[in-house]
Amino acid sequence: MNIHGKPHRSIEAEHATRTARIIDQTLLPHLVEWRELQTMEDAAEAIRVMRVRGAPLIGATAAFGLYFALRDDATDGALQKAYDVLHATRPTAINLRWALDRVKRAVAGRNVGERAEAAWQEALAICEADVVTNHAIGRHGLELFRAIHEKKGDAAATLNVMTHCNAGWLATVDWGTAISPIYQAHDAGMKVHVWVSETRPRGQGASLTAFELKEHGVPHTLIVDNNAGHLLQRGLVDVVIVGTDRVTAHGDVANKIGTYLKALAARAHGVPFYVATPVSTIDWTITDGIRDIPIEQRSAREVTHMPGVNAAGGREEVLITPEGTQARNDGFDVTPGELVTALVTEHGVFPATARALQELQAALQASSAPDIF
């Protein structure tokens, strides 16, 4: 996708130096700064402090991190140690474990001297596959958008889409998941407008989704999180689409905190609520999202303080609560599958039910796609 008119990906391999570079998303939208990842510790720190975020991008970054570790020490012990360090950085996103397992399988059984090269190639393959996957998700989502738009009965009408958090190209290697069909609809000439919720406390909607949509020229309006139900109630939203960090085998969805409330409001007002997800984000080992998905507990400071840019152009953080206020900061919530209209994957659109996902899993296994599991 584009930054200031130039095409980029959120993580880019530097083949000459065998490093990778990322956009430091903690500085967006006011500053676009690239950071080079050279070591496993660099990758782990970038994931932990959210210089990179979004389940697919976390997975891709972790894959490069495992390569860096194996480049320095490719023994079994070092491999497992690096795996454990990277896996512990973010507990909710399943793509982290999925990508690490892919790299681990790619080097298994190889001589120590061959492991680093195999890991590098696998990290590159994960990135390329992510781009193809997200474009396919966008194509399937675009068909849903077209069907909803046709029901409006006016080809010139605007399709009003609501999203939450950031599920665009900044959350993946390119295209994004929930934002991919928005980009493709816009590029196809459909009049699309996006309601972007701010996504407190870290403001991923305000700082990241709004940044992306502006760069691509997609009309959008930023709203405070608590405005979502009001807009749905007044008929100002045609469809809600969000991404996810983990989907259970029964269709429950973990996404950024605040997603569940949007799903409830969408159901109350008859608005379709779609979840865009690569199949790699489905955790086939669990069935009850509320019981089984670990919810990341983040720093209370993210709630009690607000970062921004002052009048002089400098970055600063200010306290917005009484001194010493206690705060709880759940990073995610779980939306039950019964509230999800459908899951939009690279393989098509599926009901968020145990039966539909079992059929999908069987079809994938029959097609020899072991890297999905």
Can you tag this structure with a few keywords?
isomerase; Methylthioribose-1-phosphate isomerase; Rossmann fold; 18 strands; alpha/beta; methionine biosynthesis; Four Helix Bundle (Hemerythrin (Met), subunit A); IF_2B-like_C; EC 5.3.1.23; 4-stranded mixed beta sheet; 373 residues; 12 helices
Termini separation: 28 Å
CATH superfamily of the largest domain: Translation initiation factor eif-2b, domain 2
**Beta-strand proportion:** 15-25%
Describe the main β-sheet briefly: 7 strands, mixed
CATH class category of the largest domain: Alpha Beta
- Rg (CA only): 20 Å
CATH architecture of the largest domain: 3-Layer(aba) Sandwich
The SSE string, one letter per element, is EEEEEHHHHHEHEHEHEEEHEEHHEEEEEH
Fraction of residues in helices? 40-55%
Structure annotation, total helices: 12
DSSP E strands, number: 18
Low-confidence stretches: none
Q: Overall mean pLDDT score? A: 96
Q: Which structural class do you get from the secondary structure elements? A: alpha/beta
Q: Which descriptor suits the 3D outline?
A: globular
Strand order of the largest sheet: 8-7-6-9-12-17-18
CATH topology title of the largest domain: Rossmann fold
Tally of distinct domains: 2
Chain oligomer state: single chain
Concise structural overview:
This protein has 373 residues and is of the alpha/beta class. The chain contains twelve helices and 18 strands. The chain has helices spanning 40-48, 55-72, 76-87, 94-107, 112-151, 180-187, 204-216, 228-233, 259-268, 289-292, 301-304, 354-366, and strands at 2-3, 6-7, 11-14, 19-23, 34-37, 159-163, 192-197, 220-223, 239-242, 246-248, 253-256, 273-276, 282-283, 305-309, 315-319, 332-335, 342-345, 348-350.
